Amino acid sequence: MPQLLLELFSEEIPARMQAQAARDLERLIRDGLSAAGLITEGMKAFAGPRRLALVIEGVPVAQADRDEEVKGPRVGAPDQAIDGFLRKTGLTREQLSEQGGVWFGRIQTAGRPTVEIIAELVEATVRGFPWPKSMTWGSGKLRWVRPLQRILCVFDREVVPISFEGLDAGDLSQGHRFMGSGQVFRARDFDEYREALLGHYVVLDAEERKERILEGARTLCFARNLELVEDEGLLDEVAGLAEWPTPILGDMDPAFLDLPPEVIRTSMRTHQKYFAVRDPATGKLAPHFLVVANIAAEDGGKVIAAGNAKVLSARLSDARFFWDEDRKSGFDAWLEKLSGVTFHAKLGTMAERVERIAALAREIAPLVGADPDTAEKAARLAKADLASQMVGEFPELQGVMGRYYAGADGLDPVLADAIRDHYRPQGPGDSVPTAPVSIAVALADKLDTLVGFFSIDEKPTGSKDPYALRRAALGVIRIILESGKRLALNTVSGVQANDLMPFFADRLKVTLRDQGKRFDLVDAVFALNDDDLVRIVARVEALDGFLKTDDGANLLAGYRRAANILKAEEKKGPLPTGMV
Known about the structure:
five-stranded antiparallel β-sheet, flat, 20 helices, four-stranded antiparallel β-sheet
């Protein structure tokens, strides 16, 4: 069966938008074809720095003809009703037949050619594409993420006639901006298209670009007895920045290695999109970096590496300045600055938030086996690094830098670890704190967030959760469950008053669902008004295990039978007076 090939060629698409754009393109075209009754054999979408592409196999050449029976007015109905039915259906009186006192007719509709449907669908898709951000250009009204320059649309090796907003579909595409000299080429099917792109230095598939980056990077590192510090998020990003990704290994000044490794890696990743490199013998960072260029340089990338090394040196010099200046300032100066930092207009400053967290940490400490004084002190220091210059430049290092600065000041390692770990877990793949003081501060931080925002009615709604309250609740649940601490949440200040337990119940259901547990079991256990999460989960697991046994199945069967009997009796009305 015929194949459909579509490419939407534009100026550079932001890397962060490409994967979702490919999914959206596939969804919109699939839904449009399905709505038209066109069932295909398979499709795949692609995204790159300058193009979205879609190939669909096994597309019918036309819709199937339809033969539909339609019901009309009853026999003997007024002529007006019958005439209206005829106008609506395009039938004549001679084409009607009587069935059971009602007029029926048959409408036969020839299927439309697929090429017509594709033309309409592509235009509708482009005009309504759900980019997070889009723009107009020139004098046109069309919106796209960046100026849309060309549409390639070929069905069964023939160009689909599409024309709107000054764009005319054709069979032309374009290669690499530099290595391909921007030359155009023709493609009438996907194999021709893909091969031509490779010949013009464009790797179409993002997964192939990522594999090319990893293989090249590992080879370069292995040749110099080094090891790549892999970063999945960075890999996704750089694969969206280069059409012909070429890894290049560069050198950096070893003097910068006295900076915390997180600072070096974050500076490389955030500002320059470089991968860090480590020495496999020591596990420590090596004085090198790996940059992914969008060109295969004739000199093997020496000039590119040297230029990027200079830029990295400037970035790390800034980081060293922040590191040195922050260590001169210290925690007392940062804590003073927090009084001028607004946490939320209705919840006060960061300094006021610190006071709340400290009080909660002292309250929670005995419940998790931590010293109250130590927990309170750790909580008072936990947010101080938010006022440091390093965290101001790299917000993702909050807590991490506090740990380093605490160590540099000679503070108790228990305090330093709590400063770093109280943000955990920050996602499903992150670990939870394990030290009692760290647990107390982490719980206090998350519970203050939940209690605060619930108290001002800033609760999550639908898919919107601007303050990450669901993540905070899941963090509380994971910390309690994985540490095994028997903490009655309703006894913690503010939890019961702000009706947080139903919210925790919903989040716990999500957690248990991911583990394969049933929602109704969680509901049954929560109906006991228990607020000990460890005990709740133990009861859910026990109930789940029991219901899987023969005794459990028999109990359920007996309950259902009794419930059905009671329902049947209720329908008969109330029992006569005096009867049991």
